[in-house]
Amino acid sequence: MQIMSSWATPDKRVLVLFSDAVTDFLFAFRQDRHQPEAGGILLGHRRGNHVEITHATERVLTDHRTRVSFVRENHGYQEKAVELWKSSHGTIGYIGEWHTHPETVPSPSLVDINQWSQLPSRNANNAAMLGVIVGITRLYVAVLRQNPPPTILQPERDVKRS
């Protein structure tokens, strides 16, 4: 049986599951004092309001990276998303985006919040998306909708790495 980390809204109406393989992958990109930020997209299954993250992509060489910023280029990401969507017969889709921050307990910057506000409108059915920030020891996970501010999720099974 695969163990998953789970996150939920305070009212428990939205549950997000990350496979251990995905959390291991994300934490492999944690920043030290000198590394630039990294990021990619999240892919998985939607089940009503609930989401299971099964895949996370690695950055591509054309992304723009500094120690305190990450700008994802479209080239390469869409191809991976389409490939997984086709191979899963339409059950795995684009769920959101992830990137790193050089913080122990990460939180979104104003740039993150502004960029995240555009994600739901890029989705064909305006479905809620996820924004994930990988910190040095913890994740920040938020549900992104078109109008309201991000809804911060709380860990049900904590994903803390030392």
TrEMBL record:
Alphabetical UniProt keywords: Hydrolase, Metal-binding, Metalloprotease, Protease, Zinc
Top-rank lineage group of the source organism: Bacteria
Domain MPN stretches: 15-150
UniProt-listed SUPFAM superfamilies: JAB1/MPN domain
Xref: InterPro entries: JAB_dom_prok, MPN
UniProt protein name: Integrative and conjugative element protein (TIGR02256 family)
